[in-house]
Design goal:
It is a single chain. By secondary structure, this protein is α/β, with parallel strands linked by helices. The strands form 5 sheets. It has a 10-stranded mixed sheet, with helices on both faces. The chain is globular, with a radius of gyration of 23 Å.
Amino acid sequence: MNPCVRGLTAATALALCGAWLTRTAGEPLRQGGLVQELARVPGVKPRNVVFILADDHRYDAMGFMGHPIVKTPNMDRIARAGVHLRNAFVSTALCSPSRATILTGLYAHQHHVVDNNSPVPAGTVFFPQYLQKAGYQTALVGKWHMGDDDGGPQPGFDRWVSFKGQGSYLPSPDGLNIDGKHVPQKGYITDELTDYALDWLKARDRSRPFFLYLSHKGVHSDFVPAERHKGTLAAPRLAPPRSQHYPPDDEKRRPRWVRDQRNSWHGVDYPYNARLDITEYFERYAETLRGVDDSIGRVLDYLTSEGLIESTLVIYMGDNGFAFGEHGLIDKRTAYEESMRVPMIMQCPELFAGGRVVDEVVANLDVAPTVLSVAGLQLPAYMVGASVLPLAEQQRIPWRTELLYEYYWERNFPQTPTTFALRGDQFKFIRYYGVWDIDELYDLKADPLEMHNLGEQPEFAALARRMSDRLFDLLAKTDGRSIPLSADSPFVARLRTPGPGAEQAAPFPPQLVQKPGQQPFQ
């Protein structure tokens, strides 16, 4: 149920959303095998929308956030002209599940794209299909990456420019799929995708509203900056993050699997099974991000030249975060802030004033409802998220106080277990599935770096139990109690670095070692 209709009866809520039908939980709205046209909200002018998505962009890597190295003048430009949703998250910190959630408004356990190998189930409805029904012209330019598809057209888009899987930063023959036809990729991917996006905007039908989904490969690893950005960082090198090494008492309270993961494909002691300099790696990341920021600037400049900048909703977001040494890890997948928290900024001066900051917890679940509401369409009742537009307008509305997070174990990256978490305004509870280990509980206000695990401390036992119960309650209400199972991937990153002591596993947390007089089933 959308939080904006919390407290209403089911019949009233469904009526407001323009739908009344018998269905299973999470099933998209269909009629006769076709997407049903959504009812229009009276008096709402359909807006043009540009949604720009970056890959692996962590929440704090923006210039206006005060980062000492990262330069993002055009992201800063959106923040000044619009709002910064500073507590934006993804419900799964992994490319394909996050992107499927953006397009469906559903959790991964509902849309079933649970990892980067799972195909999109037949009949899945993407929100641009509703826009098409409402008369919008739509385009996808950039990364799709769901299952082992060939990068060809998907439902909901009149114009299609994409590529297979992760694509390539640099030119490659037959690298792009344009409306079902393979063509060479001629230039640096971020720039070329922007060229295609602008060409489509210039050729659009000016009598109809448009939706552009510009989905960048950048800044996915392995990071490759544009030639013009290589070596442009003038700031001194960054120190390793504080949480890369824990004080002894806090180290003992960490899950064993996290400590073991330091020596793995996704750990700082053996990153990508190599001797990678993490600081240098971040510098390449920052340089690669500048290409994405240039792309944003080109789109904003075009909208300005066309007189559309005041009336068009522009949303920028990351599909998941990325760790650079925090907790001894790199990459994403975990429920830690560096992994699941993302940048999100948006502007539309005719709808809301600039320079605002939204503190409420928003998510990739909210993108589809936001775009549909701006298009003047009533929301399908099955969507889990809600429009963030009232928050940008500073309306006082009922809103979520917690967010469900999920990640499902992948055989090709076996270091990270299936993870469920409940992220509240102050506390975060993390529970692991299928691994002999401890839970985690963090006070995000007192411990924003998530270094002091309260999960096994007696004075927080009641809170951990309440959050665990609430986590399972949310899963039950959204049909999330079954664990999805994916087929094996042929690639498995399962190696550890050799050497004296390198093979030694982390000790069990002391909470799992039986004490004298302790009952065996506590």
